[in-house]
Fold:
Amino acid sequence: MKKNIANLLFLISVLSVGNILNANNQDISKDVKKPIEIRIDDNGQVIRDQSGSSKNNNNNGQSGQNARISTDAQRGGTETISNSAGTIKVDASYSSQGQDYRQKFIILHYTAGNRESSLKTLTKNEVSAHYMVSDNKSEPVYSLVDENKRAWHAGVSDWKGRNNLNDTSIGIEIVNDGDVSGTFVPYKDFQIKEVAVLVKYLADKYEIPATNILGHSDIAPQRKSDPGPLFPWRELYTQYNIGMWYDNETKNNYEREYETKLSMTPVSDVQRELNKFGYGISITGSWDKQTKNVIKAFQHHFRPSNYNGEMDVETFAILKALNEKYNNKK
Ligand SMILES: [Zn+2]
Structure:
């Protein structure tokens, strides 16, 4: 799909008149940070053209260099700031070497509701996300919060010791019913393609590494199940080089190694391995509920054919293979 992100409509407006949150929306309704004075401009519909950002679409971290140069080129020049305290001139012709982006993570969600209720929840309540991918193919992807502002989508969350990921992430909500009485609802193909375009664009723009492209359940495994086991992480990796995936051969080697060894492996070692990968988990040495929830979140992401929360040989082999590939630094 060659859908150019530059043609996304940036729609910041009051889109529907409504009142109360629909009961379907449990998933996103509890992720509100304490309200602070950040509000979206609501002067009606704003259409903005975000041009020149999709040239470097290979999401490997290198191409972000160009994005930075063009940002600096746009800076340049001088401007005058005047207010009741006085007037100053600001010159942006020098640029510091030491700088990076505030946007460190991309977090994917399902809305657990239909298009109308999702949009209402995300625009009329405190919960929010930077983008919403509709389930109606004729619609654009909606930008609901400026990328430089915080959206309230992650809630209590952590990854690799960083917490409160609302501060450092971009949240993408995908319209999908989620878990309906224990059965997850598949995503539509066009939604996955739109997500791929959007994630690639954001990862490239902000130099976000594959290891920081995650699901809500990864950063809040005790509370959340989205984007769920039907979200095709493997497809995103193999088709678009988005996010993390393991190498089969490495996995097979670990499977052989742990076939008999896993049952003798202390629980605390398993917990440390999950923690090394990024999950927030207490090293308790027992198969407690929090450990099962983390294993389940991991299985949703990397072994979706069976996500019973039990640590089996295949799951552990995948975890070891991922850590070897992405977290091998001592
Ligand atoms: Zn979520």
Summary: Residues 1-71 have pLDDT under 50 and may be disordered. Residues 246 and 322 are 5 Å apart (CA to CA). The longest strand covers residues 78-83.
